[in-house]
Description:
By secondary structure, this protein is an alpha/beta fold. It is built from 13 helices and 12 strands. A 6-stranded parallel β-sheet has the order 2-1-3-4-5-11, sandwiched between helices. A 4-stranded parallel β-sheet has the order 7-6-8-9, with helices on both faces. A two-stranded antiparallel ribbon has the order 10-12.
Amino acid sequence: xxxxxxxxxxxxxxxxxxxxxxxxxxxxxxxxxxxxxxxxxxxxxxxxxxxxxxxxxxxxxxxxxxxxxxxxxxxxxxxxxxxxxxxxxxxxxxxxxxxxxxxxxxxxxxxxxxxxxxxxxxxxxxxxxxxxxxxxxxxxxxxxxxxxxxxxxxxxxxxxxxxxxxxxxxxxxxxxxxxxxxxxxxxxxxxxxxxxxxxxxxxxxxxxxxxxxxxxxxxxxxxxxxxxxxxxxxxxxxxxxxxxxxxxxxxxxxxxxxxxxxxxxxxxxxxxxxxxxxxxxxxxxxxxxxxxxxxxxxxxxxxxxxxxxxxxxxxxxxxxxxxx
Length: 324
């Protein structure tokens, strides 16, 4: 089906049909209605590539994330999709599985597709190599009139970012444990070797700032299984509380404590981070991260040119902490 056939059916010119499809030219209401009826009757679908060449293609917002199965990223994706729809833009979800080569390939594809904006989420090792790489990706997108926005990670150079108060959230929940009388608080999370990602590094920094010393740290991946196995490696040990780096890690830690005959919170207090649905099910005291708000803010920053901002976190008190 072509524009000419739609025009003939509606008894108007091809130019009039184009104006109705573009939506940014004045067309008489009766004429617009007749064209829209013809489009529906003929089941006309616009040629996206032709419209792109003409400069009238709909805006596209791409959300690039490591893994769509992670609940935190899924909440952020929901916010991105909602905000994109509000701006009349199409939302694309692209996953990298944490593979730098795949990430580069995704960016190249989005550059070729001339995405209006690309939003990148996920913790990184914030070193010189990362900053050089992300700067190159941003410049490549800019040549296609696309804008890169970082989500949940610090800005790099002149690349805008939407952050959340990660370090202060960790500080606040550690202070919550301290105010309940706990002093020996194990931090469960982070790499066993090499530098930590920005997500872990900020949470560990907040934990240490509240304690006033390096504390006790047990490495663990951001999974339930790792939380279980790594805490089992420290049991039995004389700590009275566990600060798990994520709610998933906390769920594994809770299972490990129970497997060793320890009750939460009567024997060991337990806190997490993120405030996923899982946290409410477990009665877990945790830090709420506004992931959906971050996604929406990233779209507004990308499409409306708003400034870099840091969203607040908050401690959600449930039943997993008891006074010592």
